[in-house]
Write a structure and sequence with these properties.
Elements (H helix, E strand, L loop, with lengths): L33 H9 L10 H10 L4 E7 L5 H9 L4 E6 L10 H12 L5 E3 L10 H8 L4 E6 L5 H11 L19 E5 L2 E5 L15 H7 L8 E5 L3 E5 L3 E5 L3 E6 L6 E5 L6 E7 L3 E5 L3 E5 L3 E7 L5 E5 L8
Parallel strand pairs: 1-2, 1-4, 2-3, 4-6
Antiparallel strand pairs: 5-6, 7-10, 8-9, 8-11, 9-15, 10-14, 12-15, 13-14, 13-16
Length: 330
């Protein structure tokens, strides 16, 4: 009998229906807990808050010698996610996920060069896409070529960890499906999966300290995650023009400027004149050809040096960095 749910990793229990791992006592040889069953078959939204999960995951993986694969998508590259990657000890590889959303004009060597220079990433970097089945056997290939037996797959919530492992299992004819959804903390515990003679471990997702959304804003969380190739939006700003994102964050330059927005095409972006939204106002000097990063959402490339007023109903979402794509934004 399985001792853990193969969908989320929670230990099975029969006593509390509203707790992780619940299965009816009369159910023979269960594979999935009731929560996973309802997420998978009824698309139920059943979030569970995991306390101190970032430290718990880091503490466990840093005590083990297995190689670590850290998955992050292009729109969630920021100081916090890269800092977490740097805290992982031992052999590790940075994987850029959801390659299917990146326009073909954006070349992989340029992204690697940017990560090297901007965030000081010196470890190997590669690219994967579960949706397009691109390079999904990479983890197994690395284990095989280096005669390794164990790998941890890490990343922030909605980075695509479980989808990547599911594709790998399918490729290797392993009959197992991990539960996937857009709700935070779908994976609740460390989930061990044997693929031939290799040991792959899915991990609970790291949680950003601050996000553009609340954890119960399921529609917004879904729209923030791109379904198709991004189509960057370019705007010409005047002094009295505001770009308003989802009616909760606005960007305004103190002079004429060109900006390009990189985020999901389903995020609501509007251009207003002399319109206001409520929230904390930050005034930030942004150098020419820099990115305004909005944690948990994406980034905005700024063509010319300006002072920007950024109004948001949430704090500590913004950071400024050099342009990811260089002078020509390609």
């Amino acid at each position: 009998m399985n001792k853990k749910c193969i969908g989320c990793g929670a230990p099975f229990q029969h006593s509390f229906k509203d707790k992780p791992g619940y299965v009816p006592e009369n159910l023979d040889n269960p594979k999935y807990c009731m929560r996973c069953f309802r997420i998978m078959h009824y698309n139920d939204k059943l979030p569970i808050e995991l306390q101190n999960i970032n430290n718990i995951v880091l503490d466990k993986v840093n005590k083990d010698q297995g190689i670590k694969f850290f998955l992050v998508d292009l729109l969630n590259i920021n100081e916090e996610t890269m800092s977490t990657f740097k805290q992982i000890k031992g052999d590790k590889i940075l994987l850029i996920g959801k390659m299917d959303i990146i326009p073909k004009s954006i070349k992989k060597p340029k992204i690697i060069d940017f990560l090297n220079k901007e965030y000081g990433i010196t470890e190997p970097i590669d690219f994967v896409s579960s949706k397009k089945n691109y390079n999904t056997g990479f983890i197994y290939k690395v284990l095989e070529e280096n005669n390794l037996k164990k790998a941890y797959v890490l990343g922030y919530t909605n980075s695509g960890k479980s989808n990547l492992i599911n594709e790998l299992c399918h490729k290797m004819d392993r009959d197992i499906v991990i539960t996937t959804s857009n709700i935070p903390n779908t994976t609740l515990d460390f989930l061990d999966i044997d693929i031939q003679d290799k040991h792959i471990i899915d991990t609970p997702g790291f949680i950003l300290n601050n996000t553009f959304y609340d954890n119960n804003e399921y529609d917004l969380i879904d729209r923030i995650n791109p379904k198709d190739v991004m189509s960057p939006l370019t705007y010409q700003l005047k002094e009295d023009t505001r770009i308003v994102i989802e009616d909760r964050l606005s960007i305004q330059s103190n002079k004429k400027n060109n900006i390009t927005i990189y985020m999901s095409d389903r995020v609501k972006v509007n251009k207003y004149f002399k319109d206001k939204i409520t929230g904390q106002v930050k005034e930030i000097k942004v150098p020419a050809n820099s990115d305004i990063v909005i944690k948990g959402l994406g980034f905005v490339n700024v063509k010319n040096e300006s002072k920007f007023k950024i109004t948001s109903n949430k704090q500590d979402l913004i950071e400024i960095r050099n342009s990811m794509f260089g002078d020509n934004n390609e």
